[in-house]
Design goal:
alpha+beta, Arc Repressor Mutant, subunit A, 3 domains, 3-stranded mixed sheet, 8 helices, 6 strands
């Protein structure tokens, strides 16, 4: 979510940075976080910056992925704690016996004592992870090659099924599935071909290649 970052008179370097940085920019920031909860379920977060620097997109992406992976690992432990139905000291003993670190154990014990809807809390975190990863462009060269192969396969299958005359979309999906290509991949490639003008829909449910 969104949060406010500020620098006071005792953080002159951070103040100068914010007044001169060209936006948009990726930054690395350390500071003191504060939360304000005007009403249940509504939390505002602010950070008083102490040190801040410019970073490149690759570094930012790596941090996001690392954070997502570690959060997923913690959520797995959190879910285990929920299903155990232990609380307080019994939960602490249960997690420590399973080899969970004392820091994470203590955090989960406190969270389950304070969190009003732990299931919803876990769902919200999972949603945040997905949304965060969606912002990244993680296509490697291998992925790009794989997508090119998939596009070529779909084109070839369209030609094979008489694509210049028109192919029933449902029948095409079945044919692709029988050859091991998922529905999601086919839909993605078809959207790409439509956007690029390589095929069109003369009527609903029919795909026709151009040329």
């Amino acid at each position: 979510g969104a949060f406010t970052v500020y620098a006071g008179q005792y953080q002159p370097e951070a103040s100068i940075f914010f007044s001169t940085v060209q936006v948009p920019a990726f930054i690395a920031l350390t500071g003191k976080a504060r939360t304000y909860e005007p009403e249940p379920g509504s939390v505002f977060v602010s950070i008083r910056a102490e040190e801040v620097n410019i970073v490149d997109e690759e570094t930012r992406n790596r941090w996001v992925v690392d954070t997502a992976e570690q959060t997923v690992e913690r959520l797995e432990v959190f879910s285990d704690a929920l299903t155990s139905e232990y609380r307080g000291e019994k939960l602490r003993e249960y997690l420590l016996e399973k080899g969970i670190s004392s820091e994470l154990t203590e955090g989960i014990v406190i969270a389950l004592e304070r969190e009003r809807s732990p299931d919803e809390f876990a769902k919200l975190l999972k949603f945040s992870i997905r949304e965060g990863l969606k912002t990244l462009d993680l296509d490697s060269e291998d992925n790009a090659d794989a997508k090119a192969d998939q596009k070529e396969f779909v084109l070839e299958l369209l030609r094979e099924m008489g694509g210049t005359k028109g192919v029933d979309y449902a029948a095409f999906m079945d044919a692709a599935a029988s050859r091991g290509i998922s529905e999601q991949v086919v839909e993605e490639v078809i959207r790409f071909l439509l956007a690029g003008g390589q095929c069109y829909e003369p009527k609903i449910g029919i795909i026709r290649l151009v040329g």
